[in-house]
Amino acid sequence: MNVKLGKTTFRNPLVLASGTFGYGLTFPEVIEKVGALVTKGITVEERIGNPPPRIWDSAETVVNSVGLENVGLQRFQTEILPMIPTSTPVYVNLAGVDLGDFKSILQPLGQDQRIAGFELNLSCPNVKEGGAALGQSSRKVSEVTALARSLTVKPIWVKLTSNFCDVREISKAAADAGADAVVLVNTLNALVIDVEKRKPFLGAGSGGLSGPAVKPHVLYIVREISRIIDIPVIASGGVVSGLDVFEYLLAGARLVQLGSINLVDPGAALRILEELKDLFRREGVNSPTEIIGRLEDR
Q1: Does the pLDDT value for residue 23 go beyond 90?
Q2: Is 124 among the catalytic positions?
Q3: How far apart are the C-alpha atoms of 36 and 49, rounded to whole Å?
Q4: By percentage, how much of the chain surpasses pLDDT 70?
Q5: Domain assignment of residue 296, yes or no
Q6: Angle between the N-to-C axes of helices 99-109 and 138-151, in degrees from 0 to 180, rounded to the nearest 10
Q7: Helix or strand or coil: residue 295?
Q8: Rounded to whole angstroms, how far apart are CA atoms 23 and 116?
């Protein structure tokens, strides 16, 4: 089940997505089986996040408005990082408002041997500054990615948005500025209404849509972007089964992130991995590399 990106070999293509598995301090039996873990997003200063309620869900969708709640850089370095198991590659998700924020985080973390790489959060829709506000501009994506590239030799993944922007342009900007992979995509802008109160349901007003309903949208994006850039694409959106992972690999993804399903069932990755292995056996596939990007045109 091995997949290789650059100089890194992952034991399988499953990645626990940022914001859905905390800092990796619980459920070690899951973390030790997947290909990689991406931590909750880290900002320079500690953040308490958005006001409640923060989550609305149904069978097919989750809308969240957590707002990048996290312990901040200093506590992450001193309290959290020493406790994260490193038998599985750990990628740290970084969130900032401007170039100065990313520089402040990357300078102390950029060479830390406990960290396998970084995921630049240029896509979160649940904050007023940074996040998607950066990722909707190819110029800003280029600037942040180039800065990160200058501060570390470790792999850099850039997590992008498809909200109100041309994903082709921003993906190319990330690739040209030195990204090692792009992650497609973060949650979609969403609104849930409380009819009785005549107000938005979520405390912050709007949120980010994820879950199975977004998978067809993300599959399309993964296929299109994987065909126009020369760096790997990592898929993120709506995975709940091994079949979903198989489809993303066919569409062109080299790794596949598991997100909302972790909130419902923290052990889901183990089930999905076994389903993927069974599907490989039934389809006569010996390795993920045999099917990555092999989706045929109609």
Answers
A1: yes
A2: yes
A3: 25
A4: 100
A5: no
A6: 20
A7: coil
A8: 14
- pLDDT, residue 109, reads 97
The alpha-helical segments, DSSP class H, found in 52-137 are 72-75, 99-109, 132-135
Separation CA 193–CA 197 (nearest Å): 9
* Any domain includes 240: yes
Whether residue 56 lies inside any domain: the answer is no
Query: Of the candidates 223, 203, 161, 156, which has an alpha carbon nearest to the alpha carbon of residue 186?
Result: 161
Token pair recorded at residue 184: 């497609």
SS3 of 79, please? helix
Q: Which of 124, 156, 231, 240 is catalytic?
A: 124
Summarised one tens digit per residue, pLDDT across range 123-167 is 998 888 888 889 999 999 999 999 999 999 999 999 999 999 999
Nearest partner of 180 among 116, 227, 136, 132, judged by Cα: 116
The packing angle between helices 242-251 and 268-283, to 10°, is 60
Domain of residue 215: give its range.
3-49+68-194+211-290
34 lies in some domain: yes
Dihedral, CA atoms, 60, 62, 63, 68, nearest 10 degrees? -150
Task: Return the pLDDT at 291.
Answer: 98
Contact present, 41 and 19 (Cβ < 8 Å): yes
Residue 259 to residue 262: CA distance in whole angstroms: 6
